[in-house]
Write a structure and sequence with these properties.
This protein has a 7-stranded mixed sheet with strand order 16-28-27-26-17-24-25, sandwiched between helices. A 6-stranded antiparallel sheet has the order 8-7-9-15-10-13, with no helix packed on it. The protein has a 6-stranded antiparallel sheet with strand order 18-23-22-21-20-19. It is built from 28 helices and 28 strands. It is α+β, with helices and mostly antiparallel strands. The chain is 51% helix and 18% strand. Among the domains are: 91 residues, Distorted Sandwich (Calcium-transporting ATPase, cytoplasmic transduction domain A); 127 residues, Rossmann fold; 117 residues, Calcium-transporting ATPase, cytoplasmic domain N (3-Layer(aba) Sandwich). Helix 1 crosses helix 12 and helix 3 packs antiparallel against helix 8. The longest helix is centred in the last third of the chain and has 36 residues.
């Protein structure tokens, strides 16, 4: 039985400790192999053992998560998840509004109001403060209390525990002091104390909720890119049901089968992947690739779902179902990348797993210290040591923030992958970003990478035949090849003749060319090495001519029949306008650029000199490219490889960072770490730049989170009290805690303004 997995939408997560708690309880469920929880996306992906009973295990996982204090929904489609996130944001907003509305009245009553007299011996002013605190503590803050108890019951501790402990202790303390005249059994510590902390309770809950609301809003904004991609594909398609009459009917895209004929009008979005059928049109692909200029398409050309028809009415023969379109694959790729965890994030997860218990311990120790420290009275801003211990305990609990640590990596990753997706750069995982950050060597293929990948025949050298003969044999041998040279040869042949000999037993010789049988004679097309293998003797004069031709930067293809060398075909591939610019940018970024190609040394160096590459490794067979990458890595280099994703698959997989130009082939999606929707080297350089920018955000986020806790917790514990008399109030601690999380998310959101350098 094959391994299965499912995705759950999780509500109620507030920090990385929450995510760790869910992972912990879920991992304990029988038949669960692996769990990955993403805090910013509010999502969990659960992978099951091959032998698992899917529905039973899924039900057990949902139950375990709900018992831990979190809400669970089975994903009902990506748009539904967005709606759920917006609904949750509105609910948070209502609770925040109430808390902040009552915050100032509570503060005034607690700290600044004149005496209102007493009722039954109790202070009216404190009673009013108690009543303004009640709805905040029990309604706005109820989620903290409920989830804290569920978390503790499951054997874990998260930020909710800290907020619950801090607000509950402050609330009970204040309650007992307020109602002390009616409670004669209370110990003297309450009868002598005068300070209450109702304002702290309200401000803590209010600021924490405000921080959570701002986080949720920022996280929703961080996923804008992926949400935009989801909206690109139309929900319906106009399907031709009778091709003879042209009659069409509207159908849901999910119901349209492969091979259907779909009609798309001017200005409409193409609903499914396919090929143009008896149509021509300009297509706007900017939403997917970032390419600002329309692309002209004609009969037989591929078109993708999510792109827009700019002129006329077109017909498309569909090639993929709705769930398997390029757009759908792109969305899945981006989401998978956003669910990834960096090695540094795994370290953070281990820290946050013990963070809350350590903070509680520190809070208790600090409170005990100030409670029993005999010399604190000289600089104690409170009336008693008990009140000082109380404020230190609450502030220490509240200021500690595992949220900032937990959000540091995933928020930057989400925004970074989203920014790349807007410009046709797809990142398949966090490891790719980390390696991109440390890359020092950029290896590029020649054909299809530095050049357009669409060569044309520029010259035919005839030795012992006519043009028709050499082209006919060459076209027949290359009939089923998808190599760009094969297409150029077939085009040239079709312009000269329609005759094609019946060549049988055609075989591909990897890295050499093609051979076959024509009326008992071996015919071959390929390089010099292949000619020698089939018994062709090439004299020195011919070799000199070949060298001279290769020096012009053309690709040479020799053709033979029997023991005769018929001649050779020269194909010229146009260098991309952006290649020289891309190489220059890569060097400015500090990369050592190397060309790795199977072409002849002379042709490769001609192209290399034109684009500004000094190091060339030529004459390498496709299966040897990976070995060359390994040689570079053995020298201690971190290598990024750029290829077309077809012939370079092994090298792309072997490189530390694989960048595949063009996402049309499945092999590109499988082999590479970055997939570039545009066939442009400048996007490869932009990918590495994006990787650097994202990792800088991650590191600055983590640095800020660690510094915040390293400074904030000691301040809350009262370390500055003996020296300056400074004591951090609970309300300020709550504000600082919320600010730390929001600042981390805000720093990540700066990546939304990342743009590739196309200059």
């Amino acid at each position: 039985m094959a391994e299965e997995s499912f995705t759950l939408s999780i509500s109620g997560m507030t920090c990385s400790a929450c995510a760790a708690s869910i992972e912990k309880v879920t991992s304990k469920v029988e038949s669960v192999r692996e769990v990955s929880v993403n805090l910013p996306l509010n999502r969990a992906v659960v992978h099951l053992q091959p032998s698992a009973q899917f529905h039973q295990t899924k039900a057990k996982v949902i139950t375990a998560i709900e018992r831990s204090g979190f809400g669970v929904k089975t994903t009902r489609g990506k748009p539904a998840l967005i709606d759920d996130a917006k609904s949750e944001l509105r609910k948070k907003g209502q609770k925040v509004s109430l808390a902040l509305l009552l915050a100032l009245p509570t503060l005034y009553l607690t700290m600044f109001a004149d005496d209102f007299g007493t009722i039954n011996g109790m202070n009216r002013r404190l009673l009013l403060a108690f009543f303004t605190t009640l709805p905040v503590y029990f309604w706005s803050g109820w989620e903290f209390h409920l989830k804290a108890w569920k978390s503790l019951r499951s054997g874990t501790a998260n930020m909710d525990v800290l907020v619950h402990l801090g607000t509950t202790v402050a609330f009970l303390w204040s309650f007992l002091i307020t109602f002390e005249p009616s409670l004669p059994f209370l110990p003297s510590v309450f009868t002598t104390a005068t300070h209450v902390f109702f304002d702290g309770v309200v401000f803590i809950i209010g600021f924490v909720l405000l921080g959570n609301w701002m986080e949720a809003a920022a996280k929703l904004k961080a996923t804008d890119a992926i949400h935009s991609l989801m909206q690109l594909q139309p929900k319906q398609a106009r399907v031709i049901t009778d091709e003879a009459s042209g009659y069409s009917e509207t159908q849901d895209v999910e119901a349209v089968a492969v091979g259907s004929l779909v009609k798309v009008l001017l200005g409409e979005t193409i609903p499914l992947d396919g090929v143009l059928f008896q149509s021509k049109a300009s297509i706007d692909e900017s939403m997917m690739t970032g390419e600002p200029y329309p692309v002209r398409k004609s009969d037989g050309d591929r078109v993708s779902a999510g792109t827009i028809v700019l002129d006329g009415t077109i017909f498309i023969r569909t090639s993929r179902v709705a769930d398997d379109t390029l757009l759908a694959n792109i969305v899945d790729l981006v989401e998978e990348a956003q669910m990834g965890k960096a090695p540094i994030q795994r370290l953070v997860d281990r820290i946050t797993a013990v963070f809350v218990p350590v903070v509680v311990l520190l809070a208790v120790l600090a409170a005990c210290f100030w409670l029993f420290y005999p010399d604190s009275s000289s600089y104690n801003p409170m009336e008693t040591n008990a009140e000082l211990a109380m404020i230190v305990f609450v502030s220490t609990l509240v200021i500690a923030c595992p949220c900032a640590l937990g959000l540091a990596t995933p928020t930057a990753l989400i925004v970074g992958t989203g920014a790349g997706a807007r410009y046709g750069i797809l990142i398949k995982g966090i490891e790719a970003l980390e390696h991109a950050h440390s890359t020092d060597t950029l290896v590029v293929d020649k054909t299809g990478t530095l050049t357009s990948g669409k060569p044309r025949v520029s010259h035919i050298e005839l030795l012992d035949c006519e043009v028709k003969e050499i082209l006919s044999i060459a076209a027949a041998l290359e009939d089923e090849s998808n190599h760009p040279l094969a297409s150029a040869i077939r085009t040239s042949w079709s312009n000269v003749t329609s005759h094609r000999p019946d060549i049988r037993g055609i075989q591909t010789m990897p890295g050499l060319g093609m051979i076959g049988d024509l009326d008992g004679a071996v015919v071959a097309i390929g390089n010099v090495e292949l000619m020698e293998d089939v018994g062709i003797e090439i004299d020195e004069e011919i070799l000199q001519k070949l060298a001279l031709a290769a020096g012009k930067g053309v690709t040479l293809v020799l053709v033979s029949m029997g023991l005769r060398l018929l001649g050779w075909i020269e194909a010229k591939d146009r260098i991309r306008e952006s290649s020289k610019r891309a190489v220059k940018q890569a060097k400015q970024m500090g990369y050592d650029v190397i060309m790795l190609t199977g072409d002849r040394e002379e042709a490769a160096r001609t192209v290399a000199e034109e684009v500004g590459i000094e190091t060339v490794i030529a004459g390498v067979k496709p299966d040897e490219k990976a070995e060359q990458i390994a040689v570079l890595q053995a020298k201690g280099l971190t290598v990024a490889m750029v290829g077309d994703g077809i012939n370079d698959a092994a090298a792309l997989s072997r490189a530390d960072v694989g960048l595949a130009m063009g996402a049309g082939s499945d092999i590109a999606l499988d082999a590479a770490d970055f997939v570039l929707l545009r066939n442009d080297l400048i996007d490869a350089v932009a990918s590495l730049s994006l990787g650097r920018s994202t990792m800088r955000r991650i590191r600055s986020n983590l640095g800020w989170a660690f510094i915040y806790n390293a400074i904030g917790i000691p301040l809350a514990m009262g370390i500055m009290l003996p020296f300056s008399g400074f004591l951090l109030p609970p309300a300020f601690a709550a504000a600082a805690m919320s600010l730390s999380s929001v600042s981390v998310v805000g720093n990540s959101l700066l990546l939304r303004w990342w743009r590739p350098n196309l200059e």
